[in-house]
Write a structure and sequence with these properties.
The longest helix has 20 residues. The relative contact order is 0.14. Strands 5-6-10-9-8-7-11 form a 7-stranded mixed beta barrel. It has a 5-stranded mixed sheet with strand order 12-13-16-14-15. The chain has a two-stranded parallel ribbon with strand order 1-17. The protein folds into 2 domains: 160 residues, Elongation Factor Tu (Ef-tu), domain 3 (Beta Barrel), CATH 2.40.30; 223 residues, Protein-Tyrosine Phosphatase, Chain A (Alpha-Beta Complex), CATH 3.90.190. By secondary structure, it is α/β, with parallel strands linked by helices. The chain is built from 13 helices and 17 strands. This is Tyrosine phosphatase family protein. It comes from Denitrobacterium detoxificans. Keywords: Membrane, Transmembrane, Transmembrane helix. InterPro entries: Prot-tyrosine_phosphatase-like, Tyr/Ser_Pase_IphP-type, Tyr_Pase_AS.
Length: 416
Amino acid sequence: MNAITNERTPVAHRLAFAIICTLGLTSAMLFGCSPSQQSPTAPSEDATDQPLEQAPSAQYVNSAPGLLEGLVVSKDQDFGGINFSISIDDFNACGFAFGDSVDIVFSNGCELTGIPYYNGYYANIGDPLLVGYPGYSTIRAALSFGDSLWEASGLSEGDTATIRLNTADAFHTVQIAHDVAYTNDRTDYASDEVFANFRACAGGTLAPNVLYRSASPIDNECNRAPYASALLKQAGVQFVLDLSDNDDKVDEYAALDEEQGIDVTPFMELRSVGNVALLNLTANYSSDEFKQTLAQGLIEMTQHDGPYLVHCVEGKDRTGFVCLLLEALCGASYDELAADYMASYANYYGITEDSDPDRYDAIRNLNFDGMLRYLANVDDQANLQSIDYVEPARYYLHSSGMTDEQIDALIARIAG
């Protein structure tokens, strides 16, 4: 297989959208979006991995179908997106539909033109989108898997925005291909493992039953915490890499779980003896903050015996990237990496290559292949199945601050 060198070369920019911000009278910034960029990114569906915020009071003027003025903006504190003072249902009732393209003009002069409006994070890495994700109290603009759009746009609390329909159904095909939903009812799933998205990772030289992944065993937002917590105990997990939480979040979840009679004792016991690393990551796996924080968590992991569990909220996006990275480090092939990544979509949505090939391919091509293109620093034309991902994985960890010795210690912990 072809090896990728450690020296990262720029990938040609794909300028699908533009963010034009006029700050003052003369300053303008143009942000191009590229899968190899090291800055733009915010949530993904796991960026949905956050407590539901309170819906603000509606503030806007709907003077015509497909036109909203006077929307007050506020910063999404977890991921740096831009919240607008209107609920998803109210926004859709004003002449917008998932799959449309929209123009957004902010009162500070920043404009987003022709961006997609989806009910999930279906854009390429770093591309702007407007999203009405189920469970969000408002619509939100963000950079898909990117940095803070709020900061990039130079906004302040109290600024306002106008949203105008650009083209109806401009992104209808993408919306339909990715529009899937799961339930939080255990009886809708074949087993506790499927419901909790709990499984052992595999591929390359990765040792069997040493590295596990799952939905959150502490945050019961999706009703999966008690199942994931029980399964981690059953698997003998000794150390947890918690990608989504910090101490305050865990304390809040634990209090709520206790109040509701939800048993998450196995997770809390590991935390009480220092066997949980709380990383509180965003979904931006290309950012320096993500990389450096992950590196510290992985270094801490090497100081503990396994088995190990990696989780976020759904165990799908942040967890998907981190497990892909660790599997790649152990020499997993494209097919092995894809099998594990796409298993989450089988578990949550029943989407497999046989049951729903069109959706399977659409999700794999956008989400999974996008991660591999970033990791290997290649463009859309690259043959991803021919690449050896060991060196790209090592380079990622090197650039995150890990030494060769620390990377080798990590491999020794998880490889057979």
